[in-house]
Design goal:
Blueprint lengths: L10 E5 L6 H10 L3 E5 L10 H6 L7 E4 L2 E4 L1 H11 L12 H25 L11 H25 L11 H12 L11 H11 L2 H10 L6
Helix pairs in contact: 1-3, 1-6, 1-8, 3-4, 4-5, 4-6, 5-7, 6-7
This protein binds glutathione.
Family: Belongs to the GST superfamily.
Keywords: Transferase
GO molecular function: transferase activity
């Protein structure tokens, strides 16, 4: 990690405190590569400036820049990043059976788990008025519980990581959504195998560095 050594920077991560950048940020730390952080303060609507929309037309974080390429979507960024560093062992080899499960978890967490999390946190994005907001939140809570149940079973059957005995990028993505859920109606930490997973992730230097740099804390 050489966050402040600009001469050797190869990655630029656009981020906001506790945003969907958390997984990428921790993986950059885990890899020990040189990177810089550019804060996009969502509270100040910096994601909507013409400058940032030119980088990421979705107006969301994270965005990663690497050798002139711009990549958005946290799961895609993780897969791309870990393919740049195959020796780190955080992505299963291309033709290994575990590679399928790695894709499975990252895409499922993006479009099912993270989607339910987003509905819980931002029900206003899913309806036109505000009268239906409680029912959107209730349904999101049910869907989150279903997702936690699936993950809790998988971790119980395989564990301690999503791919069994090997840590992968998917575990960083899971930790990110599990962290967010500590303020939700359905919390990952209330499921025993998920709680163990969160506690194991919290032991990692990379997670601690990311959380300290983003000013985050978590008790579980
Ligand atoms: N599926 C995207 C979701 C990104 C996302 O929703 N980011 C939020 C922060 S967690 C954001 O930038 N929101 C700003 C906005 O919607 O204006 C990913 O995983 O990268």
């Amino acid at each position: 990690m050489s966050l402040h050594n600009r001469r050797h920077i190869i990655y630029t991560l656009y981020w906001d405190r506790g945003g969907a950048n958390m997984a990428t940020h921790a993986v950059l730390e885990e890899l020990g590569v040189a990177y810089e952080l550019i804060e996009i303060d969502l509270a100040k609507r910096m994601q909507r400036t013409p400058e940032y929309l030119a980088i990421n037309p979705n107006g969301k974080v994270p965005t990663l820049q690497h050798r002139g390429e711009i990549i958005y979507e946290s799961a895609a960024i993780l897969m791309y990043l870990l393919d740049q560093h195959p020796n780190a062992g955080l992505a299963p080899a291309l033709h290994s059976p575990q590679r399928g499960h790695y894709y499975q978890y990252l895409t499922w967490m993006s479009n099912t788990l993270q989607e339910a999390a987003n509905r819980w946190a931002h029900p206003e994005h899913y309806v036109t008025g505000d009268t239906d907001l409680p029912s959107v939140v209730d349904k999101a809570t049910q869907d989150l519980s279903r997702c936690w149940s699936i993950l809790n079973d998988d971790l119980g059957n395989k564990g301690p990581w999503l791919l069994g005995d090997r840590l992968s990028g998917a575990d960083f993505h899971l930790f990110m959504v599990a962290y967010w859920s500590s303020r939700y109606g359905s919390r990952a930490q209330d499921w025993p195998n998920l709680r163990r997973h969160m506690q194991a992730m919290l032991q990692r230097d990379s997670i601690q560095q990311m959380m300290s740099q983003e000013g985050l804390t978590l008790e579980c």
